[in-house]
Amino acid sequence: MILYGAAVAAGILALLWGADRFVEGAARLARRLGISPLIVGLTVVSFGTSLPELLITVTATFMGHPDVAVGNVVGSNIANIGLILGTASLFRPLMIHSALLQREYPALVVVSVLAWLMAKDAVFSRFEGLLLLGGMALFLWWMVRSARQGQVDALLKEAAEEPAPPERGDLRRPLTYLALGLACLTLGSRLLVWGGVGMARAFGVSELVIGLTLVAVGTSLPELATSVAGAIKKEDDIAVGNVVGSNIFNLLAILGVPATILPLQVSPEAFHRDFPVMLLATLLLWPVCRSWKTGRRGRVNRLEGGALLAGYLGYMTYLFVH
Fold first, then answer.
1. Cβ atoms within 10 A of the Cβ of 249, count?
2. Geometric angle at alpha carbon 77, from 76 and 82, rounded to 5°
3. What is the largest CA-CA distance in the chain?
4. Which domains does the chain have, with CATH numbers?
5. What is the C-alpha R_g of the chain?
6. For residue 262, with 0-12 CB atoms within 10 Å meaning exposed, 13-18 middle and 19 or more buried, which class applies?
7. What is the pLDDT of residue 154?
8. What pLDDT was estimated at residue 265?
9. How far apart, in whole angstroms, are the C-alpha atoms of residue 265 and residue 283?
10. SS3 sequence, the chain?
11. Structural contact between residues 195 and 6, judged by C-beta atoms closer than 8 angstroms
C-alpha cells in the first residue's frame, strides 16, 4: 500500500512538473520559429493545464484500464465545477464580467450532452473520437477568430496576452524542455495509473471510483492553482473561464485522442451515474453564475461556492460508501 501511495504522489508531481516544462519548451520553440503569439497562446497555453489529463487517459487506455481513463475525464469535469470553482469562490466572491454565459457556456452544455449520448452504447468509437477532435479543431478556430476580432473574454484573456518578445539563439534549450517535459509526463502518467489501480484493488473499490476521485483530483491540480490564483488576484473571469475552457478541452480532446487510437469502453455505472452528475454540475453553472437582476453582473458568492463544494464532497462520499 505504501508503494502504491508513493507511486501516486510521485506520478502527480511528475505530471505537474512535466506539463510546466513541456509548455515552456513548446512556447519558446514556437516563438523562435516565428509562429504567431496569438496562436501560441490559444493552443500551447490553453492545453497546458490539460496535458496531465491527456497523458493519463491515453496511458490508462493502452494499459487496459478504460474505467480509469473515462473516470479521469468525467471526474475532472465534476471536480472543476464542484471543487475548484467552489474553493475559488470561498476566497472571495467571483464577479462574471464577460459574455462567458452567452458564448462558451452553451458550447460546454452541447459538448457535455453530446459526450453522454456517445457513451450510451458503452463505447467511444474511433469515428466518435474523430468527431470530438473535429469539434476541438472547430472550437479552437472559433477562439482564434474571436480573439482576432477583439472579442477576448474570460476564456481567451490570459491565453491571448502577448508572450515575451521572440527569442534568439539555437533550439537546444526549448527542445531540451520539450524532451524533459514529455519524459516526465510519460513517467508520471504510468506511475499514477499503476499506483491508482493498485490502491483500488487494495481498498476493494472499483477502478472507476479511483479514476473519478484520486486520479481526477490529482490531474486537476493545475486548474485549481490557476482558478484560486485568479480569485486572489481579482481576475474573476479567469477563475470561471478556466473551468469552462478546461471542461470543453477535456470532453473534446482528452476523450477524442484515445478514442481515435483505440475504442474506449464505458461502463454502465459511469453512463448511468457519473455522466448525469457531470451534466447536472454543468447545468448548475447557469443559475449560479448569472445574475437574476436586470443590469447586474453575474456573481458566484461564498454561499453558492460553498454549496458547490459541499455537493462535490457529498458525491465523493457516496462513491466510497456505495
1. 22
2. 95
3. 58
4. 49-161+205-321 (1.20.1420.30)
5. 19
6. middle
7. 47
8. 93
9. 25
10. CHHHHHHHHHHHHHHHHHHHHHHHHHHHHHHHCCCCHHHHHHHHHHHHCCHHHHHHHHHHHHCCCHHHHHHHHHHHHHHHHHHHHHHHHHHCCEEECCCCCCCHHHHHHHHHHHHHHHHHHCEECHHHHHHHHHHHHHHHHHHHHHHHCCCCCHHHHCCCCCCCCCCCCCCHHHHHHHHHHHHHHHHHHHHHHHHHHHHHHHHCCCHHHHHHHHHHHHHCHHHHHHHHHHHHCCCHHHHHHHHHHHHHHHHHHHCHHHHHHCCEECCHHHHHHHHHHHHHHHHHHHHHHCCCCCCCCEEECHHHHHHHHHHHHHHHHHHHHC
11. yes
**Distance (Å, rounded) from C-alpha 198 to C-alpha 25?**
33
> Can you give the pTM of this predicted structure?
0.82
Amino acid identity of residue 23, one-letter, is V
Backbone angles phi, psi at 141, to 5 degrees: -60, -40
Residue type for position 63 = M
Place of cell 490557476: 226
First-to-last alpha carbon distance for the chain, in angstroms, is 22
pLDDT at 193: 79
CB 52, CB 69: distance < 8 Å: no
Find out whether 146 and 284 touch, Cβ atoms under 8 Å. Answer: no
* Cell numbers describing residue 300: 458566484
Single-letter amino acid code for the residue at 190: R
Which residue numbers in the chain have pLDDT < 70? 19, 23, 27, 30-31, 33-49, 97-101, 147-170, 226, 230, 233-239, 291-298
Tell me if 212 sits within 8 A of 77, measured CB to CB: no
Residue 285 is placed in which grid cell? 453553472
